[in-house]
Give the backbone structure.
Amino acid sequence: MRIVSGIQPTGNLHLGNYLGAIRNWVLMQDEWTAKGATCLYFLADLHAISMPHQPATLAENTREMVAALVSCGIDPDKSILFNQAQVPAHAELQWLLNGTARMGWLNRMTQWKDKAGKNREGASVALFTYPVLQAADVLLYQATHVPVGEDQKQHLELARDIAQKFNNDFASEEAPVFTLPDPIIPPEAARIMSLRDGSAKMSKSDPSDMSRINLTDDADAIMQKVKKAKTDPEPLPSEAAGLEGRPEARNLVGIYAAFSGRDVASILAEFGGQGFGSFKPALGDLLVDKLEPIAERYRALRIDRSALDAILAKGAEKARVLATPTLEAAYGALGL
Ligand code: ADP
Ligand code: NA
């Protein structure tokens, strides 16, 4: 069994990135490697160039993401952690698959329609063809399982269609070149809201630093931000239904639930009827307790560029070994 999953390298990581994305990778790593599977996790730096991007920060964002992933529990000895750009087989296989993918298939991708908007003529060719790169990303490793959120289901279907057509057109039934990967539904990701506005997502692009808890924040900053978090004047309800129409309260209780592993009902059974004056310090303590060890590892790792580069180089080396037989089989099948 092989699991392959990618994440865009972004900088300024925060609590939302941790609970919404990174933590799921750690959970999957632990669950699937225990079943004997190999997890391949890659930073999608090749995908980053399909949209306008900053060359000066791309490599740093990749390093930042590696530091965050390792600090949060991705173990480079357990999982294969690497970036696409160091494994040329991704780009090579994409070109080979471009011969099999149909224009009509790509034209139907809703993400292409959404992201290109009205300016299709001005969109990059990469934005149109990146679902083929995504297909290469997983087919290259004979992935058996790929975690997909709602928005990626269509792209995994496309990868299966490409694999099937390639196998049909260029390989025998007994010796297919590609494995058709099955989707797995990742553990439900929390959607974390801004600490300053319960209707906005916690985001690195929010100009107010008080709106988010960064993975680099120290204990004082975490306590301050929780203390200043926007709330309403009512005490906490004693049942979940009472959070209806109270987005700030719901968000803070949700964060407490995510970090404590307790359900909302049990948290409200404890804190219901009390004001935020008693809940916020409890939440702050919990966050410091859970995040400080991560933040400490992160701060130490983030400044050690050569250690981060070494992790990526080692991961890329392992990935190349797994990629080579498939790439060679694809060239051979095409008569190249
Ligand atoms: P940002 O919104 O800060 O720009 P990105 O868009 O770069 O973050 O997202 C990187 C990953 O983190 C994605 O998988 C995204 O779903 C997740 N993520 C970002 N913000 C949140 C949030 N507030 N709650 C849950 N998940 C989030
Ligand atoms: Na974003």
Q: What stands out?
A: DSSP finds 13 helices and five strands in the chain. The pocket of sodium ion (ligand 2) is lined by residues 203 (CB under 6 Å).
